[in-house]
Amino acid sequence: MTAGAGGWRDRVVAALSVVMCLACILWNVELPTRLGLAILAQQYMALQLGLALTIAFLIHDPRGRRKPRVGLVDGVIALACLATLGYAVVDFKWLLAEQFYRPWQITLIGTVVTLAVM
Question: How does residue 58 score in pLDDT terms, banded at 50, 70 and 90?
Fold first, then answer.
């Protein structure tokens, strides 16, 4: 899984970075509200955190240095962060309504986010 200059990793990181910037711009001009969409601030923050963690695990080693390639473990962690927080963004309203019943999904999301951020 090498990722040289212009490799797949750089293209994925660039695409995720563009999505982060576009989401930020659209959020700041209140486009969801103008379109009549009810998107909570926590959903937006989950999206940004998921993208940031994915990018971090794709390009940095544990000491913060840029790594030459993506290892299997880092790739799995990056994918888990993106998938978990993507699910939280999509199904946030259900998670919010069901939080008092402590569904397993909330425990899984919390575990993945806590371990990835640490």
Answer: very high
**Cα separation of 1 and 71, whole Å?**
7
Task: Please give the full DSSP string across 79-103, using - where no structure is assigned.
Answer: HHHHHHHHHHHHTHHHHHHHGGG--
Residue 16 has pLDDT above 90, yes or no: yes
**DSSP-based three-state secondary structure for 66:** strand
Q: pLDDT value at position 61? A: 84
Q: Please check whether residue 26 is in contact with residue 32, taking contact to mean a CB–CB distance below 8 angstroms.
A: yes
Each domain of the chain, given as residue ranges in start order, spans 8-117
Dihedral angle over CA of 102, 106, 107, 109, nearest 10? 180
Distance, CA of 56 to CA of 31 (rounded, Å) = 28
Instruction: Record the tokens describing residue 21, joined without a space.
Output: 């910037």
Evaluate whether 68 touches 61 at the Cβ level (below 8 Å). Answer: no
